[in-house]
Amino acid sequence: MTIRGLITSLSAGLALAYASNVDGQVVVTKKARPAKTIVIDAGHGMGNRRSGVYDPGAVREGISESDMNLAYAFETGKRLSEKGFNVLHTRLDNSTETPLSQRAYQANNANADLFLSIHMNAVENTGARGPIVYYQNGSTTGSNLAERVSGELNSLTNSIQGYAVNSNPVRSNNYAVLRDSKSPAVLIETGFMSNPSELRILTQNYKQISEGIAKAVDDYLSNEVRR
Ligand SMILES: [Zn+2]
Description:
Blueprint: H1 3-22, E1 37-42, E2 45-46, E3 54-55, E4 59-60, E5 63-64, H2 65-82, E6 86-89, H3 100-109, E7 114-121, E8 132-136, H4 140-156, E9 170-173, H5 176-179, E10 185-192, H6 196-204, H7 206-226
Parallel strand pairs: 1-6, 1-7, 7-10, 8-9
Antiparallel strand pairs: 2-3, 4-5, 8-10
Helix pairs in contact: 1-2, 2-7, 4-7
The structure holds zinc ion (ZN).
């Protein structure tokens, strides 16, 4: 399936999920704990940096990062919902204005327990590869969450042929979405679209990689509860 087709089918599924909530159905979660709220931010999109201007992020082989991010955000969100979490998205398409400066506040306003920003990497060196997870400079909770997500993504390199561990897989930086988030937050660069073989891996294995992200979040929040 093309990424465009994938997004269309995932969007349809997501719209159905929201429709059932609007109808007032009680969602019974399998886990005996209050449902935590996770906000997932698909990086880039309409109005990201300038109002009315679409920001596709990186574009390689006709595929835009903005679309890839949506596909991963939907799939990760679906899996987290299945694990019993409340899931909210900062954006559901490429046409709704979603300013970068507002995204962390969308999560704060929703009393998010955790914030994930999903991106794909791109650089000039086509050999660069492997997932990188960023946390806000100086944030202990961010660092712990980043280590867990990175550990899970790196373990996938055993089962996804060609998916490699980055030489520096956990990094800190000063990104608006991380800096302004009140909850533990990470920005995930899932892999390099600028590496042709990794781009193929990212498009073909989005379900397994999304499940890895969801599992890491579940593990992290389960440990938080026990503490
Ligand atoms: Zn990006």
